[in-house]
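Follow-up to my post from last week.
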Amino acid sequence: MATMLDVAKLAGVSVKTVSRVINNEPHVQDALRVRVKTAAKNLGYVPSASARSLRSRRSYQVHLINHATTGTYIHCIQAGALQVCQDGGYQLLVSVMSDHRGDLAEAFKRRFERQLERAKPDGVILVPPFADVDGISRWLTNQDIAVARIGVNTIDNCVVSVLIDEFKAAQDLTSLLVERGHKRIAFIRGSEDQSATEERFRGYASVLEDAGIQFDPDLVIEGDFHFPTGLAAGLRLFEMTDRPTAVFAANDDMAAGVIVAGHKLGLVAPRDFSVVGFDDADIAEMTWPALTTVRQPVLDFGTVATLDLIRSFEEGDGSRVSTRRVLDYELVLRDSVGPPPSTR
Amino acid sequence: MATMLDVAKLAGVSVKTVSRVINNEPHVQDALRVRVKTAAKNLGYVPSASARSLRSRRSYQVHLINHATTGTYIHCIQAGALQVCQDGGYQLLVSVMSDHRGDLAEAFKRRFERQLERAKPDGVILVPPFADVDGISRWLTNQDIAVARIGVNTIDNCVVSVLIDEFKAAQDLTSLLVERGHKRIAFIRGSEDQSATEERFRGYASVLEDAGIQFDPDLVIEGDFHFPTGLAAGLRLFEMTDRPTAVFAANDDMAAGVIVAGHKLGLVAPRDFSVVGFDDADIAEMTWPALTTVRQPVLDFGTVATLDLIRSFEEGDGSRVSTRRVLDYELVLRDSVGPPPSTR
DNA sequence: AAGGGGCCAGACAACGTTGTCAAATCGTAG
DNA sequence: CTACGATTTGACAACGTTGTCTGGCCCCTT
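User reply:
Got it. Predicted complex:
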């Protein structure tokens, strides 16, 4: 297994020069640079991660911190991040943070304090709900760790934040229902510690207002982004005397719950009610009828975030630049939306 | 940040002695051992991963290699493995290997050859379909990497293999259907490169035979463990003139497909047909009706595999022991099974 | 009582890389 | 032709840990 010394001997230079070339540092003549590079290639030289991180106090690792919720969302982000990491010679570590009784930021710190002490990653990728908490990002940034925040509309305390325009996407979905003639449209909220909940709700509410539809607070039900709350909300809505003709669930899992609630009461979408979800999770295709929803480019979330992250510590000119990257979403029209039953 | 030297000074011993204590090496008096341990604790000492791996040529990393299929299964294994790794001072790396045209073992080698050259993990956790391929495990073992194989009934070329008794679980599910009075029971196979497919099929076939039910090859449909093939298989089965009254899908995603196929044709489980799945994935609770299935202790797969893996290189007495760990599964009875329609 | 073997503790080097600093080289101007 | 500054290169130490080796101690045997 070749070391820098081997490369240096072959190229007829000192190890330090090899180091400079490998790390793209300045102050090396082009001729030497080429010689070293070919020598390295011929020997199949790969830098030793442990040696360089021991000496340089950089870990060459990116840490992705997952919430306990398993799912396509996180998995796709992971896949995207991984690819970029591997191409760039970084390692991707994953953690799952599950139990967070009490303050999320405090729990986070407690959980990662020791971990970050030694195996300090160069960068951290945060997804909701961690991405939503300013305190977490600030803490990491203060530790001199680069942060990428996914799905949050802020560029504070991070190198990059990647997201879609949730507000507009929610408007599009709601418009879809309004255009089909729905007037009583319910909304099932997600977890309140994620800004997506409010963004989506605002999109929903704004379209109702523009359409001149009277906002009815009884039609807004609390939820937590999981199937059971969607089911419960659906049952509650459908048992109302003046039940809604359409339901906007803040994500697909809850929308699936609404569909099952309908089945339980003998109501079938899109005949008896319409429903839309959000995320285009796996489940969206597996319900009957299949869900109309919004697809987020989750894989791109992972790649874009990681690319910016790596760039930030490779350039490392100390200038802290924050970028916000708003990616395109896509409306996915399936079979869960129709006209309201009365107009049939 | 405390180093070994700090601990040594505080405890009044040499660094080497500290090293011995930290690594649980012999030849240290108990009195000293205690003194060093309390000193380390007081200073909050954590060994430097890079320094120790640079010197000892061990990476203190465990590598989990995922298949492209996202899902609860892999995610739970990851969660289990992660917990054990963190407790033991190891890092968990993840990779996703997606494109594997042609021979799986060859593709695997190509993909990880360079990676393993430098950042060689101490151990690798393989899940299906990689766990099914002997060549992969053999190759890794030859590179002096400890291997854990999950979901495969073999102890070749690995430190530990963790699984449930798929055959027996499939028997239980099939018995359930037979006991309810079903005689025409279809089976939807999974991907043929995973041994689970055949195991589950064998369980199914053996119960039919024991019950004296004539085996009908037309009722066995190919699949690939994914929803679309389940849907297609369901449609094909339900359009038969003498359609089956029950369907055993080799996993839950395909079972969900069968349910949707039923809906499309106006057939509702468990009234018009019965269906069972396998895995107890998230989807199993989200279908209507909810799926009767088998739960694998997937989290335990991860923890058990990782524990054995770590033990193997901590003891490291060169003796290559292989253990097979057969964990308990659990029958999950939900709403998708009833008596055949004729007996109603 | 002397010698030998087993156990324990420490001194020292080494792992492969990067940071620091000094030396060498080059170009340019006086 | 010399002097000076800017640029390029290299020698050396250092990062924190573990492997090797040596020496001391104790206990047992002869």
